Amino acid sequence: MKHYLTALALVMMTAPALADRPQLEFRLGLDYLQLEQSAITGLNGMSVFYKSEQGYYGGASIYSAALGAGGGLFVGGWELGKTMPITDSLFWDASIFIGGGGGASQVSGDGLMLRPQIHAGYDLGEYRIGAGASWVSVTGSDISTPSFALTLTRPLDLELVGGHSASGHALSGATKVIALTPIVRSYIPIDSQKRGGSDLETMYLIGAEIPFATDDRSEVFIQASGVVAGDAEGYADWILGKRYLWDVSPFEFFVDFGAGIGGGGAVDTGGGLIVSANAGVRVDAINNLELELGVGALSSFNGDFLAFTPTVKASMPFGSGAGRGTAPDMVRWQVSTGLTQLGISDDFRKPGGASNDVPTMINVDIDVFLLENLYMTGHAYTAIIGDAGGFQIGMFGIGYQHPISERLLLSGEVLLGAAGGAGVDTRGGLLGGYKLELDYRLGETVSLTLGAGHIETLQAGGMHPETLNVGLKFPFATLH
């Protein structure tokens, strides 16, 4: 039944993405759980949806612990639904989320989460607010409860074109995606202790950021990072923030502020809410490659976690002319999602692990093309089946796509990333891997994709599973 549910969600969420000019929306949510069944009393939600003119939407969501003392629970997956107008300003909204996750010792089984919801709301034009009810159920845990739900939804107003051709479309001054930016950082704890009482040591993380802008003086960003070395294997965080910029040629100075969710690795983030502040400098190095150095602090809202956070970033801003080929005002993207099966061995889990079940994971991949066939890619995986609730993987890398025929394309990727959770032996969290995929174009805006690959810990002796994946891939373009 679980496989049927996930397959149904995958098929249904394709409808909005088939539009010629798909629209994206960003949603923030808060679920207050009515029954006290675990250390978690509330969940935060972050979603990005494709939306059709008929009100149908589908996309990816991440739910995480936000209230209580269970910071570190993350659940990722698919969500699909429909918004229905009542009057010009009032509306109903109904959706269902299907995903998987765990963490903070709150899930001991599969981690499959179902969340149907319905809410009523008011359209303010630039934003939509809503209030209603949902039911949150996570297999392998005690969580099965009604909840009171609040939502805030904002259209992203991006210049999106379905497929990889922008012929006949023009930029109309909408919000711009600036870059897809790799991050390397460290968290140096300041008088912080783990949940078990021991001192928290320095953590080393990698991640990625997507910034958006409507002017030259500020950016909104979404940022994700995970531990790959040092202390707190399994820790990860997501941050939504605002950045302010000052141009003092040849430098660009900035400050930013953010809030989000974080936990795992026994880091005491309380309920899971975190806040951050940073300052630094950005410089255009060579061939439109921007380097950024920053320092800041990150703190849990109600836990014992405060850290000094030096950060390094490197990016090639979209629309800069670098690698743009014959279309300097267009950037080509692909988003793919599906199911990934891991072929595990006896040493997949840490010694003493109680299960040898084979995990199945939901994967969401984002590719952005740097050249005609060369692209940068980011992957996120979360377990939904196989007694691995809480096991998650994030990877970043370079891929190359080669057309075989009009409908068939072959691609290969080299990857680096982080993983942790559910007693899987990730040897500190740092992973390397590769993947090959064969895509069959069902149309200009959707392809069927089949793939196989391998991931393993870079420190010897850890997990080293083969991977098999099947899913759907949605090519699109943004104008700049």
Describe the structure.
- The chain is mainly beta and about 475 residues long.
- It has 3 domains: about 1-155, Porin, CATH 2.40.160.20; about 180-315, Porin, CATH 2.40.160.20; about 330-480, Beta Barrel (Porin).
- Helix content is about 5%, strand content about 60%.
- The chain has 2 helices and 27 strands.
- It has helices at about 1-10, 15, and strands at about 25-35, 40-50, 55-70, 75-85, 90-100, 110-125, 130-140, 145-155, 160, 175, 180-190, 205-215, 220-230, 235-250, 250-265, 275-285, 290-300, 305-310, 310-315, 330-345, 360-370, 375-385, 390-405, 410-420, 430-440, 445-455, 465-480.
- Strands 10, 11, 12, 13, 14, 15, 16, 17, 18 and 19 form a 10-stranded antiparallel β-sheet that branches. An 8-stranded antiparallel beta barrel has the order 1-2-3-4-5-6-7-8.
- Strand 26 and strand 27 (about 465-480) form a beta hairpin.
- The longest helix has 11 residues, at about 1-10.
- The chain is globular and about 55 Å long.
- The chain starts with a helix and ends with a strand.
Give the topology, please.
Blueprint: H1 2-12, H2 14-17, E1 23-33, E2 40-51, E3 56-68, E4 74-85, E5 90-102, E6 112-123, E7 128-138, E8 144-155, E9 160-162, E10 176-177, E11 181-189, E12 203-213, E13 218-230, E14 236-248, E15 251-263, E16 273-284, E17 290-300, E18 306-308, E19 311-315, E20 330-343, E21 360-369, E22 374-385, E23 392-403, E24 408-420, E25 430-441, E26 447-457, E27 466-479
Antiparallel strand pairs: 1-2, 1-8, 2-3, 3-4, 4-5, 5-6, 6-7, 7-8, 9-27, 10-12, 11-12, 11-18, 11-19, 12-13, 13-14, 14-15, 15-16, 16-17, 17-18, 17-19, 20-21, 20-27, 21-22, 22-23, 23-24, 24-25, 25-26, 26-27
